[in-house]
Amino acid sequence: MTTTTESPRTDEQVLSLAAEVGRRAAEHDAEHDRDATFVSEAYRAMAETGYLAIAVPVEFGGAGATWRQVVLAEHELARWSGSAALSAAMHQYLTLVHRWRHRRGAADAEATLRRVADEGIVLATSGGSDWVSPTTTAVEADGGYLVRGRKSFCSQAPAATVLATSAVLGEPRPGAEVLHFGIPLTAPGVSLVDTWDTLGMRGTASQDVVLDDVFVPAERVLGRRPYGQLAGPLLLAAIHFAPVVAGVYLGVAQAAHEEAVRLATRRPEPAPAAVRQIGEMQARLRVARWALLGAVGEVGEYPPLEHAVLETLMTAKRHAVLEAVAVTDLALQVAGGPAFYRTSPLERAYRDVRGGPFHPLTPEATLAAVGEAAVRAARG
Fold first, then answer.
1. Could you tell me how many helices (H) and strands (E) the chain has, helices first?
2. Is-contact 327 278, C-beta < 8 A?
3. Closest CA to 30 of 293, 368, 351
4. Which of 51, 238, 260, 338 is exposed most, by the fewest CB atoms within 10 A?
5. CATH classification at residue 301
6. Within-domain flag for 69
7. Which region holds residue 124: left if phi is over 0, alpha if psi is between -120 and 50, else beta?
8. What mean pLDDT is predicted for residues 90-96?
9. 217 - beta bridge partners?
10. What is the three-class DSSP state of 215?
11. Same domain for 102 and 164?
């Protein structure tokens, strides 16, 4: 088994690729936000440029970007289109998960990574809809399981090829077992329900996916964990999810900062209060970026599957999404009345960053987890 630990791409090349996709996405962003329709043009650009394969190792046909570079790429893409970046983040973090699994010897991971690079398959997830205690159920059937339920918040559902999801074996209850697996979106019994009409990130098309006795072969079960516990496959997913999605919200806030500066400098003499607020925005963004990239560097490219790793990354994510909200609020104050119009990119950024604190672990849940760990450590 071989792996790539050094990226063949420079940061500048990764950022340039993300910006190319972003420029094409931005042309249609207002339309998709207005109509709550999917950012399909962005995905065509991703397919043409190979953007969704940047984290795939070179030997499997990808660009071999590092985890840090994936975060940087998603940050850059979000400067142009928050919805395109957030949608793609769900695929990118799952690609990182499979890369980690390949590194640890998972026999099926190489095939998935090659399909991402060669066939352009798109990986989606339902992780945020039922988290540690899924309501979707699985019952044993000949050669596998029949899965029934409904998943919400399935970003990029119209473009996805495979849904990474979970179901409880039998009745949802403490002591039950949760299965993790992938389901092709074209499998019999799978259907999409258009429920996505939201405050922000309206172009992600995070639709509901209904599973009506969908057959999952036993060999497609990738892992198991206890019901109600953040462990095993879900812990692995959460670790890789946190910094990638945080990079998106920081990118949206970065764009809001840049727009506010542009509007302020059109005035002959920006008000001293506005100048100070611009400085505050820049300081908040800089420290949040340091925290996020520092956390990725601290845990390493292939971190151990430990709650301490998750706490490090979730702490950085918490800081990033809360700072994204604060920075965008300041941007509206600097811009003044023009930002109140629906035609302003600041109005959209203001709504888009509100999604950040909803992603698990939420800011409060993060503090609780970190605090509990500190108390356990103090007690020995």
1. 11, 8
2. no
3. 351
4. 338
5. 1.20.140.10
6. yes
7. beta
8. 98
9. 144
10. strand
11. no
Q: What is the pLDDT of residues 39-75, one digit of tens each?
A: 999 999 999 999 999 999 999 999 999 999 999 999 9
* 3-state DSSP assignment of residue 175: coil
Peptide bond into 163 cis (omega under 30): no
CA distances 313 to 11, 45, 247, 329, 365, Å, are 21, 30, 12, 25, 13
Please tell me the chain's helix, strand, coil percentages from 3-state DSSP, rounded to the nearest 5. Answer: 60, 15, 25
Q: How far apart are CA 369 and CA 95, in angstroms?
A: 26
Inside any domain, residue 109: yes
Specify whether the CB–CB gap between 318 and 325 falls below 8 A.
Answer: no
Q: How many CB atoms lie within 10 A of CB 128?
A: 18
Are β-strands 137-141 and 190-193 bridged in parallel, bridged antiparallel, or unpaired? unpaired
Q: In whole angstroms, what is the distance from residue 331 CA to residue 349 CA? A: 10
CA distance 217 to 263: 56
Domain residues for the domain of 40 are 11-121
- 243-287 pLDDT tens trace: 999 999 999 999 999 999 999 999 888 899 999 999 999 999 999
Confidence band (pLDDT; 50, 70, 90) for 9? Answer: confident
* Residue 46 and residue 38 in contact, taking contact as beta carbons nearer than 8 Å: no
Regarding whether 366 and 254 lie in a shared domain, the answer is yes
Bridge partners of residue 190, in order along the sequence: 211
Band the pLDDT of 354: cuts 50, 70, 90.
very high
DSSP code, position 305: S
CATH number of the domain residue 88 falls in: 1.10.540.10
Total domain count, the chain: 3
Q: How far is CA 364 from the centre of its chain?
A: 19
